[in-house]
């Protein structure tokens, strides 16, 4: 993945990554002590256990990582 933007937020940062074949960036939130620079090629490893995956990109997308009987309330 190629670093496109690094947004420092104090105790953490958002790193926007270009992924081959994807139009939209992958956004990674990480500790501010990790250092990377725009244009750098990096490898990313993540723990998928705490991840949330949604069925679409709209604001009412169903969280498909929750148990089937878990109520999903949309405001």
Name the structural class. mainly beta
Discrete helix count:
0
Give the terminus-to-terminus CA distance. Answer: 36 Å
Computed Rg: 15 Å
> What is the averaged pLDDT score?
87
The count of β-strands is 3
Main β-sheet description: 3 strands, antiparallel
Coarse shape? elongated
Helix content: under 10%
How much of the residues is beta strand, in percent? 25-35%
- Low-pLDDT parts are none
Oligomer: single chain
Order of helices and strands: EEE
- Strand order across the biggest sheet? 1-2-3
Describe the structure.
The chain has no helices and three strands. It is mainly β. The mean pLDDT is 87.
In short:
The protein is mostly beta strands.
Layout of SSEs?
Layout: E1 2-8, E2 12-18, E3 26-31
Antiparallel strand pairs: 1-2, 2-3
Question: Key features?
Answer:
75 residues, mainly beta, three-stranded antiparallel sheet, 0% helix, elongated
